[in-house]
Hints:
Layout: H1 2-16, E1 28-30, E2 33-35, E3 56-58, E4 61-63, H2 68-71, E5 77-83, E6 86-92, H3 95-105, E7 113-120, E8 130-132, E9 138-140, H4 152-157, H5 159-166, E10 168-169, E11 175-181
Antiparallel strand pairs: 1-2, 3-4, 5-6, 5-11, 7-8, 7-9, 7-10
Amino acid sequence: MGRLLLTVAVLSGAVACSEAGPCPMPLEVCDGACIDLNSDPRHCGGCGRACGAGRICAGGECGDGTAAGCATRSGGAFVTLEACEQTVKLWVTNEVFVTHADALLHGATLEGRPILALQAGTDCDAQWTWHVDAGTATFASSPPVGTCEVCPGEVELKLSYYVNDVGLWCPAAATVVSVDRR
């Protein structure tokens, strides 16, 4: 009987993580949403594996660390975009942007592409050595003049140029894959 219960528990956990369909790498489906199992304290390393109060999730492991500020942020949302088969997890405090992103995530047909002011330095997405200005993120129907329509990896490769000279990232084909309001 114990083996049967364990098997049912394992299988039900697998079902819970596959109900929303495929997510772009490195995100996984948990509770019907695309989640970063490497950094989400509610699903750290696996669906439903929550970190304790005051602990962070880094690299799929719960612990204490300098990224604790990301786990305890409030007054905004983590918005994950996919562009060029790469994901970028953004911390955004502009409620208009978050609402627009959430509507897109839930199937709304809205005009506009993200216009994001670039800043050097890793924030809550450790795969990138850049992040965006949380308060100025917006959606616009036409991009600014310039070369801001690039893949996230291109920004990473030419960080100084994109942060200092271009100043913006405006991916035309970006898709919203997750909105985590805090």
